[in-house]
Design goal:
Elements: E1 4-8, H1 14-23, E2 27-31, H2 35-42, H3 53-62, E3 66-69, E4 77-80, H4 95-104, E5 113-116, H5 124-135, H6 142-145, E6 152-155, H7 165-171, E7 174-178, H8 181-191, E8 199-203, H9 204-235, H10 239-246, H11 269-276, H12 282-311, E9 321-324, H13 339-350, E10 355-358, H14 367-371, E11 375-376, H15 379-385, E12 388-391, H16 396-400, E13 410-413
Parallel strand pairs: 1-2, 1-4, 2-3, 4-5, 5-6, 7-8, 9-10, 9-12, 10-11, 12-13
Antiparallel strand pairs: 6-7
This protein binds ligand SAJ.
């Protein structure tokens, strides 16, 4: 029986996963390097914003099934859910996984199951197994002992959407890649405790690639939409109408252009493929470049709008710019890798004191914007006062608003929600 589960890394994936195991009355020990995170959870609170999670954490901690600590303790199962960021050279940084291996190794015991959940380049689970074997020569591992190994190891990526994590953790199918069949079987039994979706077994490297392929698929398709939006702009075609028309074809489903691709998954994971197959991953690499070029393109559109207004006789000091939306996608408060935030920062550097930001999902603006003298404003005031309106994120509030802009006002709608043409 796998009764005690240790989750290493209590972030966006680790904490909800820990909580769902705990909700099935398993003893869960959450481990995190941050004292703040550990204290917050032990008080029954959460340090991230995710619907439903606070109630589940409070219940799990209150009932004694979930406890957080900074010190790794013995357990039956170790689930590693730590970050795997990119270095400045766009190479995967596996140092958190290595640190997790170091923290698990001393407490590892015969019969333990180790699962890697972090998004990882192909081959990482085998590296994890090698690190553990090196640190614990007294135990046997699947890479040498096969099915007879003391320790079982598997890769089980998550595929949940921020904002719907609790629901999707339960409902989505899981891909599970054990280093041996017994490793896969043990992992499937574990996840079946709360996963209602199917747990599909494959090879460990295929499971790693599957996660990367999913996010690269989305990135590539968003790049297609973003490229179309720039082409249509040049040719005077309303890209939103064009996409609606094309999507009437039964086998066409073009995604939505925007001001860029943000978050810590879709804009990151394709680089793991590019890094490991630089000569073959041409389309995947180009998609990243196209999506990363979109914020600069939006900034050029703002420059054009300023030039237009100046032609009408306005001086630089007359011109103010209201930016709608800062988060990396609609209806959340998450600013990680947000192209909208990047755009507003650049505008504020270029036009100090002239930028308003409207972000209904944040109580206050991030420090970087305050330092750059960006002013937070209500929708109505911003629409009335600004000479240029830049819609960056399609928050529900922005979709619902109706306003009459004056003829001197310029609108740059990167999401097509205000029914304007071109962008
Ligand atoms: N975006 C567009 N146009 C679109 C769709 C999205 O520009 O048509 C942009 C969004 O505005 C945002 C970015 O893409 O900036 C990513 O948003 P998202 O909602 O598509 O995805 P994430 O990053 O929140 O979550 C993704 C999901 N992966 C896929 O949909 C393939 C999620 O299922 C993964 O679990 C998650 O990455 C992850 O953890 O890897």
């Amino acid at each position: 029986m796998l009764n005690t589960i240790s989750i290493i890394g209590l972030g966006y994936i680790g904490l909800p996963t820990a909580t769902l195991f705990a909700s099935r009355k398993m003893r869960v020990i959450g481990v995190d390097v941050s004292a703040y995170v550990v204290d917050t959870i032990n008080q029954g609170n959460i340090h991230i914003v995710e619907p439903e999670l606070d109630i589940l954490v409070r219940a799990a901690v209150g009932a004694g099934y979930l406890r957080a600590t900074m010190q790794t303790e013995p357990a039956d199962v170790f689930v590693i859910a730590v970050p795997t960021p990119l270095t400045d050279e766009k190479k995967p940084d596996l140092s958190c996984i290595e640190a997790a291996a170091k923290s698990i190794a001393p407490v590892l015991a015969k019969g333990n199951l180790v699962i890697l959940e972090s998004t990882s380049p192909v081959g990482t689970t085998e590296r994890l197994a090698a690190w553990l074997a090196e640190m614990r020569p007294d135990l046997t591992f699947p890479q040498h002992a096969g099915e007879a190994s003391d320790i079982r190891i598997a890769y089980c990526p998550e595929r949940v959407l921020p904002g719907r994590i609790v629901h999707e953790l339960v409902e989505n199918d899981r891909v599970i890649g054990g280093m041996t069949s017994k490793c896969s079987e043990a992992a499937v039994r574990l996840y079946q405790s709360f996963v209602k979706g199917e747990c599909v077994v494959t090879a460990v490297r295929a499971a790693e690639m599957c996660k990367l392929a999913e996010n690269s698929f989305r990135d590539t398709n968003i790049a297609f939409a973003n490229e179309l939006s720039m082409i249509c702009d040049e040719q005077g075609i309303d890209v939103w109408e064009l996409i609606r028309l094309a999507n009437r074809h039964p086998r066409v489903n073009i995604l939505q252009p925007g001001c860029g691709v943000g978050g810590h998954c879709i804009a990151v994971d394709p680089w793991f493929i590019v890094d490991s197959a630089p000569d073959s991953a041409k389309l995947i690499a180009t998609a990243r470049v196209v999506n990363d070029s979109k914020p600069e393109w939006v900034l050029r559109k703002v420059d054009q709008a300023i030039a237009d207004l100046q032609k009408l006789g306005l001086t630089a000091s007359d011109i103010s710019i209201a930016c709608f939306g800062l988060t990396f996608k609609p209806d959340i408060d998450d600013l990680r890798e947000s192209p909208a935030l990047h755009i507003v920062q650049k505008l504020a550097e270029r036009h100090p004191g002239k930028i308003f930001a409207v972000e209904p999902n944040l109580e206050s603006l991030p420090e970087t914007l305050i330092d750059l003298r960006v002013r937070q404003m209500d929708t109505g005031v911003a629409v009335e006062r600004a000479s240029i309106l830049v819609l960056l994120v399609d928050h529900a509030q922005f979709k619902l608003m109706s306003f009459k802009n004056n003829s001197d006002q310029r609108i740059i709608d990167t999401r097509g929600v205000w029914g304007k043409k071109h962008v």
